[in-house]
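[Q] Does anyone have a clean structure-token version of this?
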Amino acid sequence: MNERYDTYLLYEYMKKISYTVRILVKLSEDVNPKLLHKAAQEAFGRFPYFAVKVRVGEGGNFVLDHNENPIPVLPEEDRRLVLGSAKAGGHLFAITYRGNKVWFNFSHSLCGAFGALFWVKSTLYQYLTKKYGEMAAPADIKLPGTVIMPEEMELPDAASLPDDEPVKRYEGESSMIGIGRFLKYLLNPFVKDNYYYEITTPADRFMEYAKSIDGSPNTVMASFLYKMIAGYFPPKADEILSGRIADDYRKDIGADRSYRDFTRILHIKYDRSMEHEPIEKLNMVARGGIILQMQPELSCERYRQVEDIHKGIDAQPDLKSKKKYATTHSLFRSDKRDIFSVSYVGQTDWGGMAEYITEVHTITDGDFMLEMNSLPDKFCLTFQLINKDRKPVDLFCKVFEEEGLPYTLSEMKKRYLPDIQLPK
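[A] Here you go.
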């Protein structure tokens, strides 16, 4: 296990962008705290690479040590939980609950949604079987006591990957539309909260619609978000209204079973002239851009870039220098800027647990940020904004109505993303 790989995003920590994630699971009945606490400990024992605490090593680098403290299972509060703190037992993972809701909180440095969902599913399976009895387990579940195979912790050698050039490179452009909103939030010390809405739509109706226009959940949502953006911002000639789609590239680099986060950004270049085009045509634009950017050669190139930055961080003499290097060389900050984002982890196997789960929502950082999760009967969308202006979500839902798709929309909610307490 290369623990150093799992620390690098910690160097980019900012007070308002902590690179943390929450996965909210709504159950059919209120949570039994005692059962959840017991289930959480059993499940977490299966993931020793998540049971860690952070310290600063002699070279000024972050180091992960094994953390013997129980994973915290706490009542949800209307404020940010601080991972790595004494309250969290030093852990970068924690569970909170209220009513029928369970939040799985974690640092993005150790994993993304792909890796975290194994922990989520194992915890829920332990809990739900204690409460309701035996049920069918998801095919990919990692149960307590099962062997941790080497590929589960796979970390490819960048130097061993092919370095062929892609057939063609996608020529995107950065867009500055909406950057004022984000900077106002990021730089204003008095603006602390950001918000989100929960949206659901029936899976059968949505997939029938997507297939009718030769689309996927990612490309359809990118097209819907473009329509929303075009309706929200006053028109100017020759504007680029680009979006991004998070792409998991682990298969291309031979790490398809690894818990680690291997994500890159695919850019969808729209412009103002497309504002009145039908969704079917906007979907074609998204598909074309994705096809060009999903070449395996680009995945290998991205991974080599990541490894080069990690080596650059390691070469710095102290923690302050490492932090500065990490932020000035961050691929996520230097990448082309887009106005909106879509992230979809793909179809998720919940096994018999699906009978007791009503919704699943991933909550992250970002403005005009859409996270998608799937249940057998519905898609669960998390529409995220940095202010209280609800016009964007109304415009987004208007596209559902225009396309004849049913949906439900929640009231506005605060995100309460966890913060992280790091050693100095």
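[Q] Thanks! Anything notable?
[A] The longest strand covers residues 20-27.
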